[in-house]
Amino acid sequence: MTKEPVLSVSPMRRLFCRSVALHWGKHAAHDRVSHPKPKGIAAPVGIALTALLLASCTNSQQSQVSATSASGGVASYALGAGDQFSWILPLENEANYENYDSNVSNGLYRPLYYVGGAGTTGINYPLSIGTAPVYSHGDTMVTIDLHHNYTWSDGQPVTTKDIRFFFELEAAGAKNGDYAPYLPGRMPSDIKSISYQGPYQFTLHLNHAYNPVWFTGNQLTWIYPLPVQTWDKTCPTCHVTNVASTPAGATKVIDFLYKESAQLSTYATNPLWKTIDGPWEITSYNPTNYHAVFRANPRYTGAGKPKLAGYQIYSFTSATAELDALRGGVIDFGYLPTSDLGLTHYFQSHGYVVQPWRVFYDNIAELGYTGPYRHLVAQLYLRQALQHLVDEPLYLKATLHGNGMLDYGSAPIYPGSNYVSPQLHHDPYPYSIAAARLLLTTHGWQLSTSGPSTCVNPGTGSNQCGAGIKKGAPLVISMMYATPSASLTAQAQAFDSAARAAGITIELNPQPEDTMYSTAGVCPPGPCNWGIALYGAQEDFGQYVLVPTAGVEFAKGNYWGGGYYNPTEQRLLNEAYDLPGLSRLYAVENYQSQQVAGLWWSVGDYEVAVVNKRVTGWNPLNPYANYMPSRWRLSGS
Q1: Is 295 exposed, middle or buried (0-12, 13-18, 19+ CB in 10 A)?
Q2: Which run of H or E residues covers position 282?
Q3: What is the dihedral of CA 445, 446, 451, 452, to 10 degrees?
Q4: Is the distance from CB of 584 to CB of 209 less than 8 angstroms?
Q5: What angle do CA 408, 410, 416 make, to 5 degrees?
Q6: What is the pLDDT of residue 578?
């Protein structure tokens, strides 16, 4: 057995660190579920200094870990500003449905299917417990074999009994509304029954045929084998029995596990989190500043064994604090805010590699299809005119300094990904004020650049303003956008300037990010009292979702699409779910793009990574924002 690293701090330093920690507090950002936040937001100098002091305290522990660990060394990375690893259970609740939590949990608990690799989208079969699924009976049955070489840290093999336990808990969580990934009609509701042929094979019997591309990428990726031999109980001192085999018992078990996962102070000591099948185990956790320490699991039997002896995670309340810690050598892998890209040469000359982190995420300015602007945004010609005024190449070059991707639909142009329709590589509505003006004048608007343009030809004909728009109605649209990102503000102002030149009055309404979520984020089901909502955040397609159908945004009953609904788009979306092949995905992507379901917007990179040259193996970066520390090496170790 490997000796546990000893973490020690001198009594004087321990007292100092405790006094700093008492003033730290918990950063309570209201986060949009599963949608990463814009980076580069500065905090007061006092907060930044406090974060740096705390980081220096935990950095003292870093040296102790490095000195006492096995060969391989210990590296560290920072989470984005305001993010904290604070959920260890690989069954997320709504409050902790974040990629930076699942990144950690899938290092402790290997998922059935691991997503992404070194710059590649899709499923990473070499790092997965399951072999490639086999579809049969008209795509209504899915048979999956498990690799035989995975074992839990207590020596028991990972088998279908652990898969069965997952489905028992998932069903209970979906029914109770606790399990964040669940949406009505999706797993486990789309599974009629499950048969287990033996310890290493099981078959899902689906309620109807599904597209194997979609079902594999957007449903099977949810599954985690879970250690039934230690988790199937309802209290810390209870004996493990077959509790979860009944729905009522499974509810009690998942409630117990959720309660334990919320006990941050016990992460490093709770026996529940010691039974693992992944390459890492947690050894230290500070619930005040969210600093976490992991070591290589000496009993890991799967693929992708760690090269490091351990790694650490640091959290900061602001990009300024993180940057200070990076400059101070506290962290090996940090970020350069867009506003500080001028420091690129400084870091490069001080032993760091600066690399933009391109992720397979999206960026959409939502349109308010309910509320006071619904009659305007319901008009396709007006949405097309608005899209003609989004100068993505300019935003990418001038405000993001080239660190991002063009985005002409529900998926960005990520290099090499076969999930992106070839049509989405071309802008259907290139920047053109003249084209926007022509669309408006040919649909009954009298244009003005000194005041609101007005509808002079109301009606529903092809040359009229459209349903619900009265004669004399002004062409005015409110646009909320998140602050205080300098790049997003510049984009919003450039869009406003182009719109006014085209005859559209944009009422800019800058709001703090939290207000954006609490105002624009509650529509639907409430009315959208805004015309355009631009968060400026990269949006993933939903955790564990690889195939970008944009169903979360634009399916009937959507939550993030402003109330958008189009019967043709819904039919194409259903076909992408149910009929085989990538062509169905491309069809719905193409239609959403042409219809301008939302305003397509250039998407900034997840971060501009700044990495100490002593760390290797991290590049190319994972397109789903997973750090993959098992790939890392430290030079000289």
Answers
A1: buried
A2: strand 280-285
A3: -20
A4: no
A5: 75
A6: 96
Within the chain, which residues score under 50 in pLDDT? 1-70
Q: What are phi and psi of 597, to 5 degrees?
A: -55, -35
In this structure, what token pair is assigned to residue 190?
């789309």
What pLDDT does residue 366 have?
95
Two tokens at 215?
A: 């079902």
pLDDT on residue 143: 98
For 415, residues 6+ apart whose C-beta sits below 8 A from its C-beta are 358
HEC profile of 351-397: CEEEEEECCCCECEEEECCCCCCHHHHCCHHHHHHHHHCCCHHHHHH
505-512/476-483 β-pairing:
parallel
CA 534 – CA 120 distance, rounded (Å): 28
Do residues 340 and 48 touch, judged by C-beta distance below 8 A?
no
Distance between CA atoms of residues 118 and 530, nearest Å: 40
- Backbone dihedral angles phi then psi of residue 261, each to the nearest 5 degrees: -65, -25
Tell me how crowded residue 255 is: count the other CB atoms within 10 A of its CB. Answer: 15
Q: Decide if 361 contacts 407 (C-beta within 8 A).
A: no
DSSP state of 399: I
Q: Is residue 540 packed enough to be buried (19+ CB in 10 Å), middle (13-18) or exposed (0-12)?
A: buried
The three-class DSSP label of residue 63 is helix
Distances (CA, A) of 48 to 324, 325, 366: 8, 9, 33
Predicted pLDDT of residue 8: 26
Residue indicated by tokens 């805010």:
337
Residue with tokens 């190449």: 393
**The predicted structure's pLDDT at residue 141:** 98
As a residue count, the chain comes to: 637
User: Tokens at residue 331, please?
Assistant: 């962290």
CA distance 271 to 10: 28
Could you tell me which of 370, 412, 367, 421 has the C-alpha nearest to residue 392?
Answer: 412
Cα distance between residue 219 and residue 391, in whole Å: 36
In one letter, which amino acid is 234? T
Tokens of 226: 């879970």
Q: Give me the pLDDT at residue 560, please.
A: 79
User: Which alpha helices (H) appear in 389-524, and where do they start and end?
Assistant: 392-394, 433-441, 486-502, 513-519
Q: Answer for the pair 355, 594: CB distance below 8 angstroms, yes or no.
A: no
Q: Mapping DSSP to helix (H, G, I), strand (E, B) and coil, where does residue 3 land?
A: coil
Look up the pTM and report it.
Answer: 0.86
Q: Are 124 and 301 in contact (CB under 8 A)?
A: no
For residue 367, which of 393, 386, 352 has the smallest C-alpha distance?
Answer: 386
440, 479 Cβ separation under 8 angstroms: no
- Give the contacts of 336 (CB within 8 A, at least 6 positions apart): 323, 343, 344, 347, 354, 607, 608, 609, 610
Q: What is the pLDDT of residue 41?
A: 29
Residue 539: closest CA among 92, 105, 32, 104:
32
